[in-house]
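User: Hey, my collaborator sent me this sequence without any context and asked if I could get a structure. I don't really work with proteins. Can you help?
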Amino acid sequence: MIDESTDETMTTSSDQIAGKVPRDAAAWQGPSNVALVLIVALLVVAGTFALLAVRHHDQQDGTSSIRPSGIPASVSTPVADLMALSPVPNRPAPAFTLTDQNSRRLSLSSFKGRAVVIEFMDPHCTDICPLVSKEFVDAYHDLGSAASRVVFLAVNVNQYYASTGDMAAYSREYQLNTIPSWHFFTGSVPSLKAAWRDYGIEVDAPNPKADIIHTSVVFFIDPGGKERYIATPMDDHTKAGTAYLPANQLASWGRGIALITKHLIQQ
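Assistant: No problem. I've predicted the 3D structure and written it out in structure-token form, which is a compact way to encode the shape of the chain:
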């Protein structure tokens, strides 16, 4: 609780002691220490609101006054902000060996020499996973001739639908099979859970009929097999509950993924 009492002790100046200051002026007391603290606090709060207003205005205009450090120069600040793009410690990506939608058993290390984009997806998802899938397809096309040096992967987070057929059906539905380097990996529940744990993915799947709630993060791995960046997918919902993103944001995500992977393969 703030003590709002004032200190009525007046400190006199040398002029007052010498009688040079009028009596009425000497009798006036300035703000107490508590009052000064409150005034300073109010100024700080006002300044904070002004800064937030400026930042909000910048975001509305598609610009940002603060650019995260370590972001590739080719990725604009608005796109980096949209993707919540962030560098991560330059360390080896956690290894795994799983089976893709075409029943090929592959290890992550088999993709060394190419940039790798990884997301963890639910093959029965109707929310954010289809949006990320669209962004992957857009990124593949945006890469142009560089696409042969980039691999797009997903790891299954739905232990109740874990067959290669489930992975293949999802890949066809969202046109991911049009990406030559696309792999939707699945495997035994213990091997899937090990991958989730190693990448920090939380999965809540109480039963086969429940919605699968899981961490959604895109990982960018360089040709040497090291983690370099992460991004956080986003979505919005209609009044009916359908997930969507405006077309311009989907396109920006695709371009952003392409630019980041190009940066990785050109280093």
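In plain terms: Residues 1-31, 34-64 have pLDDT under 50 and may be disordered. You can pass these tokens on to your collaborator as they are.
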